[in-house]
Each structure stands twice: as C-alpha cells, then as structure tokens.
Amino acid sequence: MINSLSKVSNIIIDETVGTVKKTLDTLVNDKKISGSQGSSIFENIKNGLFDKSSELENSITELIKKIYAKMDIATPEELETLKRRVTLLEKLTK
User: Fold this and answer.
1) Alpha helices (H) in 1-94, listed in sequence order
2) pLDDT tens profile 6-17
3) Quick one: DSSP state of residue 71?
4) Full domain range(s) for residue 19
5) Tell me, what's the pLDDT at 6?
6) Residue/partner pairs of 64-67 with CB below 8 Å, 24 or more apart
7) pTM of the model
8) Rounded to an integer, what distance in angstroms lies between the CA atom of residue 36 and that of residue 88?
9) What total of structural domains would you count in the chain?
C-alpha cells in the first residue's frame, strides 16, 4: 500500500513537472519570458517539487503506519517478520 501511494505521488509530480514545462515553453514561444528565464523558473519549480515529494512520501508512510496501528492490523513488514519466525519455529519443532 505504501509503495502504491509512493508511485501515485511520483506520477502526480511527473505530470505537474510536464505541465509546468509546457506552460513555460508557451510563455517563451509567445515572447513573454526569455528562454533563460523559462529554464531558471523550470529548474526552481522542479527542484522544489522533488524536495516536497520526499516529504509527502514520508508523511504518507507515517499516516499509514498510524492507521495500521489504530486498526490493530499488522503491516506488511510485520507479516513478513511473523512468517520468518513461523518458518524458523517449524524447523525447530521437527
């Protein structure tokens, strides 16, 4: 679930970057801003978005962990740990 949300946030950011690029290209083509201004603005926005992306991913991860805890549901990591323990115990009891 966490990985899926991370992929969604990356898709949103990629789409946003593409839209910003197209908008800035239009402004440059219409001579409303210079090419260097467009490039500078694009780099600033792109870098800011990617910085926020990791913050968003961390926030989503923490929120999902809290939801799992409140609902008393094991996380995928906890299930994997439990599976390894069960396998080990099965080997020890044979």
Assistant:
1) 2-29, 35-70, 76-93
2) 677 778 888 888
3) T
4) 2-93
5) 64
6) 64/1, 64/2, 64/5
7) 0.56
8) 62
9) 1
